[in-house]
Amino acid sequence: MTHGELWREIMWYGKFDRMPVIHWGGWPETHERWLKEGLPPDVSERNYFQATPHWMFISVNINLYPEFEEEVLEINGEYRVVRSKDGVVKQEWLRQSCIPHYMDFTLKTASDWEKYKTRLKPDQARIPENLDEKINQAEESGLFMAVETVSLMGWIRNWMGVENMSYLMYDNPEVYEDMVNTLADLSCWAIDQIVPRMKRKPDMGFGWEDICGKSGPLVNPDFFVRYVAPGYQKIRNKLEQYGVKLLGIDCDGDVEKLVEPWLDSGVNLFFPIEKGTWQADPMLYRKKYGREMRIVGGFNKHELEKSPAAIDVEIERRLPLMKAGGFVMMPDHLITPDTPLENYKYYINRIRTLRF
Fold it and tell me: H or E element: which one contains 278?
C-alpha cells in the first residue's frame, strides 16, 4: 500500500493497520542540536528518519501578484527591518527563530483595499511553466496530493495586522466580505488551472489560516459565519465539481469555537490540533463532532522532550482514535529544540512498528 493509498483508507474509514511515518520538521535550533547529537550533516532529516512529508502540494501562484519590491530599511547584528513583498514593514531577528515584530502596513484601512486588491486578480502569469512537470512528480510520488487553497483570514491578518483587521471587521464588514470573496474567487480560478491537467484527481484542497491563539479565535464566530464561511463554501463547491471531497485547514491555537462553523462551511480536515495550555483533545472533538471532522496531528510535541516512557503514554492515549480512522497522528507542531535526537528517533520507530 502506497503512502497515498494508506492516507485515503484512513481518511475514508477503510481498511488499514498502521499510521504513515511522517516527519514534518523542527525549528532551526532543533536541527542544530541534532547535528551535535549525531545527525549526519549531509543527509536530509526525512531520509535519515526514513519518513515522508504529510502530502505533496500542487499549486499555482495565489499570493500577491505582482508582489511589492522588498526593501531593507535597517540592519545590524541582531535584526533587520525590511519592507517585505506583501508591503509590511517588519523587524526580523537574525540569530533566533521568532515571530517578526510588525511595524507598519500598506493595507491599513478600507480605503486602501481597492488598490491592494489589484494584486489578487487571476492572471496566466501565475501559472508556472513547469506546472505539468510538478503534477507528474506528485502523481508518481505515491503521496497524498493536495491543491493549495487560499487563507481567508490569516493572510489578511498578516497584510493588515491584528488591530487594523479588527477595526475593519467592525467598521467596514462589507469590505472584509469583499476581501474574502476576492481570495476565494482566486482560489477557485487556481483549482480550475490545476485539476483538469491531472490524470488522477487530487485528494484534497488545503490552506493555511492560523487565526486562533491560546484564548480562541481572532474573530467573533457570528462574524465568521456571516462574512467568512461563504468563502470556504465557494472553495469547497469548486472542489466538489471535480469530485474532491476533502478541504483542510492549518490553524494553530484553540480552534474550538470555529470548528462547527468550519464544518458547516465545508472544511472537514483539521491540522494540527495543538494540545496547548487549553488542553485540546482530538478524541473529545471526535465524540462531539463525529467522523466528518478528520484530524491530522494531535500528538503533544512536548512529550517528545521527556522520555521514551512519556512518548509511549501519549501514543497509547491516541490508539483508539488511530484505530477508528479519520485521524493521522503526528506531532502537533514543529519539533522543539528541547527534544533529544534519540527521543525523536524512538518516536519515529514506534510509529513505524505500530500495528493495530
Answer: none
Provide φ and ψ at 303, rounded to 5°: -70, -25
Grid coordinates of 322: 488511530
> Buried (b) or exposed (e) across 222-244, using 16+ Cβ within 10 A?
ebbbebbbbbbbbbbebbeebeb
Could you read off the pLDDT of 249-303 as tens digits, one per residue? 999 999 999 999 999 999 999 999 999 999 999 999 999 999 999 999 999 999 9
Find how far residue 47's CA is from the centre of its chain.
22
Helical residues (DSSP H) of the chain, grouped into ranges:
3-11, 28-36, 45-49, 113-117, 131-141, 154-160, 162-171, 173-194, 221-223, 229-241, 256-264, 282-289, 308-324, 341-353
Maximum pairwise Cα distance, the chain: 57
pLDDT tens, 3-42?
999 999 999 999 999 999 999 999 999 999 999 999 999 9
153 Ramachandran zone, left/alpha/beta (phi>0; psi -120 to 50): alpha
> Does the predicted TM-score (pTM) go above 0.90?
yes
Give the DSSP per-residue string, 238-263.
Answer: HHHHTT---EEEEE-S--HHHHHHHH
Q: Does a cis peptide bond (omega within 30 degrees of 0) precede residue 272?
A: yes
What amino acid occupies position 62? I
The residue ranges of every structural domain in the chain are 3-67+106-353, 69-105
Give per-residue burial for 2-23: e unless 16+ CB within 10 Å, then b.
ebbebbbebbeeeebeebbbbb
Q: Domain 3-67+106-353: give its CATH architecture.
A: Alpha-Beta Barrel (3.20)
Of 96, 265, 64, residue with least CA distance to 179:
64
Q: Which three cell numbers stand for residue 34?
A: 541534532
Cβ-Cβ contacts under 8 Å for 180 (sequence gap 6 or more): 152, 227, 228, 230, 231
3-state SS class at 205: strand
